[in-house]
Amino acid sequence: MTTIDDIIENFALLDEWDDRYRYVIELGRTLAPLPDAIRTEKNKVQGCASQVWLGTSVARNGASGPTLSFVGDSDAHIVRGLIAILLTLYSGHTPQEILTTDAIAVFDEFGFREHLTPQRSNGLRAMVERIRSDARAALATAS
User: Fold this and answer.
1) CA 39, CA 43: separation in Å to the nearest integer?
2) Beta bridge pairs of residue 59
3) pTM for the whole structure
4) pLDDT digits (tens, 9 = 90+) for 7-40
5) Are the C-beta atoms of residues 71 and 101 closer than 8 Å to each other?
């Protein structure tokens, strides 16, 4: 299973933005097919130029509190790759870990800010906010 550190390492090896772009698209191809049951209005992320769906499941882990897992898909190849990175960063973590992880800073480290259109950047922020919102909701129901 790929970790965020693996992705950061691979990015560091790629000097050309075209190669990085292809790598992000490859990451998107690793996403499991999204079941139709998750492709609902409720799971659609608003604020994205392309169609994006994110599904969240919460596992109760007794004393250590809940962990969240995410699935996602998009009709745009590059956005699928961004989703794959977000899922690697956030899936399987507690709400507290999710809320203290700055995905935008990670994406800035990759140099995305200069290479994403304003709509894609807004969509990325909308996806991160959706994940953080689900983490806050899981925290609220856990306490």
Assistant:
1) 6
2) 67
3) 0.93
4) 999 999 998 999 999 999 999 999 999 999 999 9
5) no
